[in-house]
Amino acid sequence: MEGDTVIIDVGALVDGYHSDMTRSYVIGEPTIEQREIYALVEASHGAGVAALRPGISARELDTVCRDVFDGAGHLDWYLHGTGHGVGLEIHESPFHSQASDEVIIAGNVVTVEPGLYRVGFGGFRIEDLLVVTETGSQPLTHTAPLPFPG
Question: Three-state SS string across 82-125, please?
Fold first, then answer.
């Protein structure tokens, strides 16, 4: 329906290994509020990707993404996990959350996928799959996340 948000979560399975990616869209022209919320999700996603490196704890990565929403007064909309490992299972360790004691290491393949959701509004999530390198990370998904002009 015109004005609805749509979240598309896709993946593939190749030689026993999974992939995972999410993009969000608006049917029709987005409202100012939809643009603002999407921009927050994009900022949180960017902060998480920038922070992803070997040695960061899964809790710290979650905090980096969470802090963007908290600073904007939207932490109560953050109902989804920040990310997880992907490999032989679609959801595997490390799980990026405040409950995690895991540490991310070089060679991990993980998602960064913050999102905001509210009843009556819908939601947005941007999820990318990345491999953790010795110095940071490299994206494995190459689809532009911006669904509408800024």
Answer: CEEECCCCCCEEEEECCCCCCECCCCCEEEECCEEEECCCEEEE
| Cβ proximity of 34 and 27 under 8 Å | no
pLDDT in tens, 100-126: 999 999 999 999 999 999 999 999 999
Phi, psi of 30 (to 5 degrees): -70, 150
Distance CA 39, CA 47 (A): 12
pLDDT tens-digit readout, 18-40: 999 999 999 999 999 999 999 99
Rounded CA separation 108/85 (Å): 7
Burial class of residue 28 (count of CB atoms within 10 Å of its CB; 0-12, 13-18, 19+): exposed
pTM of the model: 0.94
Q: How many angstroms from the chain centroid is the CA of residue 126?
A: 5
> CB neighbours (10 Å) of residue 106?
14
Right CATH for 5-139 from 3.40.30.10, 3.40.50.2300, 3.20.20.120, 3.90.230.10 = 3.90.230.10
